Amino acid sequence: MTTPSRLRADAARNRANILRAARTLIAAHGERAGMDDIAREAGVAVGTLYRHFPTKADLVDAIVSELAGLIFDALDAAVARVDSGDSAIKELTHLIGRMSEAAGHDRTVKAAMANLGVPVHPDLTERAMTGLARLVAAGHAEGTLHPDITPGDLVIVMSTMPDDELPEAARHRWLELAMRSLAAPDATPPAGDEPSRGPGPA
Amino acid sequence: MTTPSRLRADAARNRANILRAARTLIAAHGERAGMDDIAREAGVAVGTLYRHFPTKADLVDAIVSELAGLIFDALDAAVARVDSGDSAIKELTHLIGRMSEAAGHDRTVKAAMANLGVPVHPDLTERAMTGLARLVAAGHAEGTLHPDITPGDLVIVMSTMPDDELPEAARHRWLELAMRSLAAPDATPPAGDEPSRGPGPA
DNA sequence: ACCTGAACACCGTTCAAGT
DNA sequence: ACCTGAACACCGTTCAAGT
């Protein structure tokens, strides 16, 4: 779990090989991937696998966290671009679209997505929520995001993203529909603000 | 799989007990439910379980199909009400809302949902698509459904419905967002229940 | 310290024996 | 015909023995 500060050379090599093998096999077969298969693919004995990751869940978690890190990087990059003046709704569409595309090829992405909502690592979750809040604020400021949308809503959208069980065309259409539910109502300019029943930001 | 036209009295009783036990345990624990546990709960030996359902997947499939049947019934009822003059968007909201609520308590519902898109039983799928097409047509006619929405879009929405991994408040908020993506641009989506702030998972 | 691989435990599945 | 439950196979996990 906690990577020791210093690792024997062969141990470090083994760990890297295990992670690489796990990335490949778990992305392809999900949790169905067998520990023996992963060990063989990594060129180590099962015992070695278990020395580095005490349980299969720990190994999966490591892969998922790794991927969550990449997602956070993408999020940070989007925030940076928005700070530089790019359109928030455009960056958000791009971000969610990239994640959805990834989720179509890698079974781990959905799990990484869920980690945003159910904090396994609270610090990472806070990092994500901070980034999402920046995007939401920018979207509200430029008037392209629906006024009642919150960072939590983005988490909901991301965690209900389709995986590879839906064909690509459907995943693409999902993105359109999802963004439609996030976007500001553009048909009528937001002058009087709708009195419907939207829980306004008070 | 194919239920024999006549079944010995004890066999029929066993089958019913197995289905009831499976409903309970699979709804609660998903596919993690053990075959031995289901057999014990049903009061039969494992061999008997396997005589009725050659494989665990078959048993799960039976439960899922059963539930899909209930969903289709609900769909047909909605179509009937719309034919009687009820609002299509309102019935659609109610229908998806009920399914979402069910999915929050029963891990099988999502699987049943997926059956709509990936036809396990083509005839059932066709029945569902016919019903959905009626609702879509009615929604277009009354102008409450977004003009470009198709029955396939409803399948996408239903198969990306959140399960019990999202808390109830988030599931409720999901419904609002989903209906927003389906509604006509100028229409105010009817909310059967009071809208809740959807802050997502804490 | 770390690695190895045989052995154990658990659960899906089978089958010889019963009625 | 249908039921029973011990036995088998598979896979996650452990551990005594090696270096």
**pLDDT < 50 stretches of chain A:** 187-202
Arithmetic mean pLDDT of chain A: 87
Approximately how much helix is present in the residues of chain A? 55-70%
> Which word captures the global form of chain A?
elongated
- What is the succession of H and E elements of chain A? HHHHHHHHH
What structural class is derived from the secondary structure elements of chain A? mainly alpha
How does this structure look, described?
With 202 residues, chain A is mainly α. Chain A contains 9 helices and no strands. In chain A, helix 4 packs antiparallel against helix 5. The A-B interface holds A 114, 117-119, 146, 150-153, 155-157, 159-162, 165-166, 170, 173-174, 177-178, 180-182, 185-188, 194, 196-199 and B 114, 117-118, 146, 152-153, 155-157, 159-162, 165-166, 170, 173-174, 177-178, 180-182, 185-186, 188-189, 191, 194-201. The first copy, chain A, binds a DNA duplex (19 and 19 nucleotides) through residues 8, 10-11, 14, 34-36, 44-48, 50-51, 54-56.
